[in-house]
Amino acid sequence: MTTSAQRSGAVEVAVLGIGAIGPGLASWAQAAPLLREPAGWVRSPTVVPPPQRLPATERRRAGTVVKASIVVADEALAMAGVAASEVATVFTSSTGDPLNCHLLCEALATSERMVSPTRFTNSVHNAPAGYWHIAAGSMAPSTSLAAYDASFAAGLLEAAVQVQATQAPVLLVACDVPYPEPLHSKRPVADSFGVALLLGPTRDAPASAAWLGLACGTGEVAVTACADEAMDRLRREIPAARALPLLQALAGQVPASVVLDDVPGAVLHVQLRWPE
Fold first, then answer.
1. pLDDT surpassing 70 at residue 71
2. Total structural domains in the chain?
3. How far apart are CA 54 and CA 137, in angstroms?
4. Residue 146: which domain range?
5. Which of 172, 188, 189, 274 is 20 to 30 A from 150, comparing alpha carbons?
């Protein structure tokens, strides 16, 4: 229930490209019609295809969060026709690489306490960004962050502010994957979900691009839910899937107002429109 809210600041950016993967959602191209008409969506385990940008050796070393992040990032850039090496990035994740975390804990629980260099490399939160920028041959700026269930909203705001400050495109990539037991019982994440948005300044955007107006808000404001009950359950079960109401609005190509989870006591208001 909405009672009162205060908003501060305003940032406007254009959506130049989109990538997505999740349960029953193989790509943005396949997901868009299902997001418009969720009755046709059948939930099934996420299948992450091998990211073609990574060499075979790196694909074997990389965890699911890295692979899914690169797959959706490539889809967003391909949609916009933008070269990967030229784009600054914001990578956000609540979970990071949960399996790697689990295996590190197992190794540290043994008497030898031996950790492989690959495990250690993949343990840092900016591992997806590192794999991406090395594979893309990019020396553009990159930010990696986490904000628990608000990680997507925090990443979206960070990327939009960077676009406004630099007047250049910024690639946002949000991805979360499940923990194995026993960590899953403490932090249940139902499946893997990834989304990428290539954001750019509105002045350079093509006529077909959607415009997002972002403003931070405080107060008791209801977060936007998905109208379809099954899809809203997915939204609640995976942090990165908090993007679903915004993705549904983008897929529908109609003006919309979306409120996203932010840090405790705050929300992120997103106004979606298509300029005339």
1. yes
2. 1
3. 11
4. 5-273
5. 274
